[in-house]
Amino acid sequence: MNFTFSVEGGDFTNAGAASSHVKKMMKQLGVDNGIIKRTVVALYEAEVNIVAHAYNGQIVVDIEEDKIYIKLEDEGPGIPDISQAMQKGYSTASPKVREMGFGAGMGLPNMKANADILNVVSEVNKGTVVEITNFFNAQ
Amino acid sequence: MTIQEIATHISGVIVEGEKHKIDPVECAFASDLMSDVLTINTSKRIMLITGLANLQTIRTCEMSEIKVILFVRGKKVSEEMLELAQENEMVLIETPLSMYRTSGILFNLELSPVY
Description:
By secondary structure, chain A is an alpha+beta fold. Chain A has helices at 17-28, 33-53, 82-85, 95-99, 107-114; strands at residues 2-8, 56-63, 67-75, 117-123, 127-135. In chain A, 36% of the residues lie in helices and 29% in strands. In chain B, β3 (46-50), α3 and β4 form a beta-alpha-beta unit. In chain B, α3 runs parallel beside α4 (79-87). Classes of the chains: A alpha+beta, B alpha/beta.
């Protein structure tokens, strides 16, 4: 089962709409609530990151029998140092993003904590690709 | 403690979800930082106490499975926040009291912290 969502940079009104849709789909499929929460928290943080930092992006969601795979690809400034961005408290967010309750340097650590597999690849001045995989039989 | 009891003790007004007013709340978490809210265990019936009143507050609670939000410092719920809250069957409460005062009152009434 495949879905694709578009995300606009700076569009805080719709930030989270894709995550909300994915949550509803997973509920309909009867996925365990704990796994749904981990998945949508990781996805929501990643979606907010596109809105907060990138010009635009695309989210592709693939739900299979045993797992959900999500690929978020954006066009944006990229992340110069991913290991630095993975540290709690490191952030380059704008005041606008902080007003929304984000930008405290928790996004990537939260994604890592809630994903069974997390891959982040980024190229400066081009964009970032985030891949999240969660297995449905995980404890 | 029920939602109605909470509202009464902090001079609050239930602006959405009146029909859930006798539902119990087991514990509370106070934060304006949504990334922090996303880290907490929400297996119990949690209420978020926050001074951050925007659409992302509602979205964050939707993702976190938090059904009750208490807005402090006189923050007002917007029309679009109300719609999203209705869609997710949430309860929204407004109080003019500060976050510290609100939390202190509810803590004294033995509403448990999340941790």
